[in-house]
């Protein structure tokens, strides 16, 4: 899949460093609608979207997937410790790739988990950038109540086998509802991604920063969550209500049955169908003054 992509570097800013982007377009070169910019989750890379790329491209969409700063192959923003340091580099990169927004929004913005929180903050800070925001398993809604999914540390473990056992446990605890889907390829992909995480102490996802950002976004918002997402265990109804409240009732909500947190990997066909439905959903009107 990577061999089929266009690879582009965009600058992080005056402090140096670059963000790595991978782009795909339909085989006939004729994309439907605006390009999709897809932001991956924490401790991940563009490969969080690996199983969604082909169905979205086949549906006629052009895609741009970055490795967020501090993850994957992208450099770390100097002094950056969390999503708030990524907003300006992301806006700069999107404008370099897709245009300066003078003629209107240049993309539809989709974010998974940490990337969903980041996408919401980005859409609020740069409202002319994206036509539509789609949240996928995003935290930052202020519903954690101090509860968190407990993951096992692995960097201190002496053997690869012990590290892989910890990775398998973490995938089941947080990412995938069906443990049978944690095959060798998924395990290797996860291990490759978490080893390149240079932002281990980020904390914004435990706040209500996304909820507050949603109140500032004038355009349409959609949300796609797995039925068994452990970030919202027993609180899915509360999440839906909070999303509605913060957007003035403008959220197009979809729940993927049988899926956990990493919905686009666990249920790629159902996720692609849900995302295409979200993109086709009529835009709600902006907030009334």
From TrEMBL:
List residues of the AB hydrolase-1 domain.
Answer: 36-274
Specify whether Nucleotidyltransferase is a keyword of the entry: no
Keyword Hydrolase on this protein? yes
Gene3D superfamilies in UniProt = alpha/beta hydrolase (3.40.50.1820)
Q: What is a single molecular function from GO for this protein? A: hydrolase activity
Q: What UniProt keywords are attached to this protein's entry? A: Hydrolase
Question: What's the protein called, per UniProt?
Answer: Alpha/beta fold hydrolase
Native species: Comamonas terrae
Q: What is the lineage of its organism?
A: Bacteria, Pseudomonadati, Pseudomonadota, Betaproteobacteria, Burkholderiales
């Amino acid at each position: 899949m990577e061999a089929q992509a266009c690879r582009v570097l965009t600058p992080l800013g005056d402090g140096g460093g670059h963000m790595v982007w991978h782009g795909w377009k339909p085989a006939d070169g004729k994309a439907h609608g605006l390009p999709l910019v897809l932001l991956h989750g924490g401790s991940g890379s563009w490969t969080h979207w690996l199983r969604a790329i082909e169905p979205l491209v086949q549906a006629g969409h052009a895609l741009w997937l970055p490795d967020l700063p501090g993850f994957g192959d992208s450099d770390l923003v100097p002094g950056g410790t969390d999503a708030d340091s990524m907003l300006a580099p992301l806006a700069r990169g999107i404008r370099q790739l897709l245009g300066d927004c003078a003629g209107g929004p240049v993309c539809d913005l989709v974010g998974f988990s940490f990337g969903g929180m980041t996408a919401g903050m980005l859409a609020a800070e740069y409202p002319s950038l994206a036509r539509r925001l789609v949240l996928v398993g995003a935290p930052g809604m202020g519903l954690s109540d101090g509860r968190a999914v407990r993951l096992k540390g692995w960097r201190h473990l002496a053997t690869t086998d012990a590290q892989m056992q910890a990775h398998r446990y973490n995938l089941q605890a947080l990412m995938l509802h069906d443990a049978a889907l944690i095959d060798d390829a998924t395990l290797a992909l996860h291990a490759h991604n978490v080893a390149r995480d240079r932002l281990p102490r980020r904390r914004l996802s435990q706040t209500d920063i996304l909820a507050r950002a949603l109140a500032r976004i004038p355009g349409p918002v959609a949300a796609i969550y797995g039925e068994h997402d452990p970030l919202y265990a027993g609180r899915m109804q509360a999440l839906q209500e909070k999303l509605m409240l913060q957007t003035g009732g403008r959220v197009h909500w979809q729940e993927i049955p049988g899926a956990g947190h990493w919905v686009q990997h666990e249920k790629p066909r159902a996720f692609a169908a849900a995302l295409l439905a979200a993109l086709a959903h009529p835009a709600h009107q902006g907030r009334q003054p």
